[in-house]
Write a structure and sequence with these properties.
Blueprint: E1 2-7, H1 11-22, E2 27-33, H2 36-44, E3 50-53, E4 56-57, E5 60-61, E6 74-79, H3 84-93, E7 97-100, H4 105-116, H5 124-128, H6 138-148, H7 153-160, H8 164-178, H9 183-193
Parallel strand pairs: 1-2, 1-3, 3-6, 6-7
Antiparallel strand pairs: 4-5
């Protein structure tokens, strides 16, 4: 019997997924919660073998829950966002799979079985996209996130310990790489790629 914990802030998803998995012969839903804080408590009970977790939760990113531990549960991300960047971030943190909420129950159950036996469940197109991100380095992503939040060059430089001229040079290089021409376009690109939600590198 595979004991599963579910972390999702949408009641319909929690109830529907719990009901669907309860009908699977070798799966038992041990608990279901809606926030990171509740999930950390539930995981501490050590009453589950696997955790299905959403990316976006009211108090942070579900990816922050994922941990590689010898005696802890395995983690699978269940998201409505079909973004390779999210899948890559999940894999880098140690997740055993990245599934979409449109996946049928049989696919989720199969992924859970694979995870608890050491396997993984990532779509082929996500795996192909899991090469190192060429569009932005880690430091460039720091600049992109702060600029997208409306910070000035001076403010970004102070935060990162760099001069305003260095930030300006970063932005010139970033604009060229991403083929954008304004801070607004940069913010839109970053949102589309999922860079504002989770660390992707």
């Amino acid at each position: 019997m595979i004991r599963v914990g579910i972390v999702d802030d949408h009641p319909v998803v929690l109830e529907g997924l719990s009901a669907s998995l309860a009908k699977v012969e070798d799966i038992e839903v041990a608990w279901s919660v809606a926030t990171l804080a509740e999930a950390r408590v539930a995981i501490g009970w050590r009453t589950c073998d696997a955790v299905l977790v959403d990316v976006r939760l009211p108090d942070g990113s579900g990816l922050d829950l994922i941990a590689r531990t010898v005696d802890g549960p395995v983690f699978l991300v269940l998201s409505s966002f079909d973004r390779p960047q999210y899948a890559r971030a999940a894999l880098q943190r140690g997740a055993s799979g990245y599934l979409l909420k449109t996946a049928p129950t049989a696919e989720v159950a199969a992924a859970l079985r694979a995870a608890v036996t050491g396997g993984t469940s990532f779509r082929a197109d996500h795996l192909r996209a899991m090469v190192p991100e060429r569009d932005a380095t880690t430091r460039e992503l720091d600049v992109i996130r702060l600029v997208s939040a409306g910070w000035s060059n001076d403010e970004v430089g102070t935060r990162l310990g760099l001069s305003p001229k260095t930030i300006e040079a970063y932005l010139t290089r970033i604009f060229g790489k991403l083929n954008v021409h304004s801070r607004t376009e940069l913010a839109m690109h970053a949102e589309r790629e999922g860079w504002l939600d989770v660390d992707v590198i």
